Each structure stands twice: as structure tokens, then as C-alpha cells.
């Protein structure tokens, strides 16, 4: 089976296919891949796919929006890596709330070396749910991640010892709350531990078992996670465009870390449980909405998670299979 995609603006059909494949390599909660793409003669739309939401784990679809933002960032970078400047408009139509962004390739440009580095990291980025070594993450690497977040209008505050201690407590508390929810556990069991032939969800080879103070609920358990660096990415506002925007920041941070040889995974509980997220906001000083908590360090190689066929992600009739 092959996919045939029509050209979009200055992008050939082959380039459109390539940049959509890159967009689809974004991370998502339980690898649900909650995005769709719609090609028009002038641009590529990024849409949320509510059918692939997690009503118990993510009832407000905050993480869904951030995942779509990550896919949007991959799309932007992949287009730029082909020497085309993409004009991006967030949430362009009030009458279509699932339409999160429109990207219009409009002008040729030289490829920035930093963009080329990020584009090269798209295919190699992994969520590493395994053990990290005791090797410390350098200050320059953390500063590069912080600059990556800020360039997309998000914030990665530096946490002091007291804040990290309180965050650790919130992780444990939020993890307990989620494990007491039958609905959250059903979603966890539905989407994780899948067969290697699955096209979505977290394969069984990517899960971890064990226990540690930095719990990783998305793994279906927790592992001996070493002594990682833990960072928080947040935003000043917390509306739909802000969540899409912070998803782009998250992906820029993840690709920056990947390019630096770092491993990263998500610590989701303290931003998924509303009471823990509200308390974490106060821990951070009350001026930033915490959106993502990341575990950063040096880990071993991990397999990639699967992706759906491209034609399953396309909205409308732009893709024909045959």
C-alpha cells in the first residue's frame, strides 16, 4: 500500500509526505498519537483527534493539546529543514475548535544549522523509561534546554533543593491518587504493554517495573531510575493556545536534549492530578502553570514506539491509498 499526497504551496508531494512523517514522530501520552493533518493547496492544518483522548487521565485534554503542539513543532522544523519558511497561525478559526494550527510554506530560505540539528534529532528522539546513570547533566546542556523553552514562549525555572523535595512528594502523592482510580488504570492497561505489532500505545518492551521515589506511571510501573535531573516546563497562561504553544516548547527541549546525547522521559502524575498541579504551581512561586515534568539524564538505547500509517492521520480526502 502506498500513499499519494498532493503538493502544498512550495512543497512537492514527496516533501509533504516527509514532513508529515516527521510530525507524526512527536511524543504523546501512552503513545495515543492524538493528531490529524489536513492538506490544502496553501498549507497544512494540524487538528486534535478527540477520539484518541484519555478521558480519565487527561479529562481537560491538556496533554492532548501539548502532544499536537509537539507534532506542530516537528512539522515546522521539518519544513524549515527543506529550505522553506513556514508561517504558522495558532487556533485560526473559532468555529473549528479542533483546528489547532495552520502552517503555510511561503518562502525559500537557507537552512539554519540549529534547525538542521533539531531536524536530525526528530527520528532519534525516544522516551527513555529505563534506568539512567549517575552521570550529571552539565550546566551548558541545561541552559540550552532552558533557552529552547524560552524561544517558544515557555519557561523552565531552575528548581532549588526545597522545590525538588516538594516535587518528589507531589509525585508520590499524585501517583497514589491515580493508582486508586479504576478509570485511570483501565486507560493505562489499555494503552501500555502492547504487542510489538501494534501501531500505537506503548509496546511491552518499552515498559519498566520496580519502584523509586521518581515514579513513572506511564510505564505501567516504575524502575530503578538512578539520580536524574528533574525539570519543569511551564507557561504564564493556561488556555488552549498556550497549551499548544508549550507543546512546541516541550518538543524543542526534547530535540535539544536528544541532540546533546541526553535521555528524557516524562513524570506525568504531578501535572495530571489537579490538586498536585495546583500545589506545584505554588511551589514554583504561583506565576507559572506547570505543564510538563521531565526526567533528564544519560540512559541506554531504547526501541522506538510504533506509529500509525500516515493515511490514518489524514483528515479529508487528501491522501489516497492503493
Main sheet?
A: 4 strands, antiparallel
Query: Spans with pLDDT under 50 lasting ≥5 residues?
Result: 209-226, 317-322
Mean pLDDT over all positions: 90
Counting DSSP H or I runs of 4 or more residues, the number of helices is 9
Q: Say which CATH homologous superfamily of the largest domain is assigned.
A: NADH Oxidase
- Give helix and strand order, one letter per element, not per position: EHEEHEEHHHHEEEHEHHEE
Give Rg in angstroms.
Answer: 19 Å
How far apart are the termini? Answer: 5 Å
Task: Name the strands of the widest sheet in spatial order.
Answer: 2-3-5-4
- Find the count of extended strands (DSSP E, 2+ residues): 11
Share in β-strands: 15-25%
Helix share bin? 25-40%
Query: How is the CATH topology of the largest domain named?
Result: NADH Oxidase
The helix/strand class is alpha+beta
Shape: globular
CATH architecture descriptor text of the largest domain: 3-Layer(aba) Sandwich
Number of domains: 2
What is the CATH domain class of the largest domain?
A: Alpha Beta
Protein name: Nitroreductase family protein
Pfam family, one: Nitroreductase
InterPro entries: Nitroreductase, Nitroreductase-like, Nitroreductase/BluB
Domain Nitroreductase: 122-298
Secondary structure elements and their pairing?
Layout: E1 3-5, H1 13-23, E2 35-39, E3 44-48, H2 62-81, E4 84-90, E5 99-108, H3 113-122, H4 139-151, H5 161-179, H6 182-191, E6 192-194, E7 202-203, E8 229-235, H7 240-259, E9 263-266, H8 269-272, H9 274-283, E10 289-297, E11 319-321
Parallel strand pairs: 6-7
Antiparallel strand pairs: 1-11, 2-3, 3-5, 4-5, 8-10, 9-10
Helix pairs in contact: 1-2, 2-3, 2-7, 3-7, 4-7, 5-9
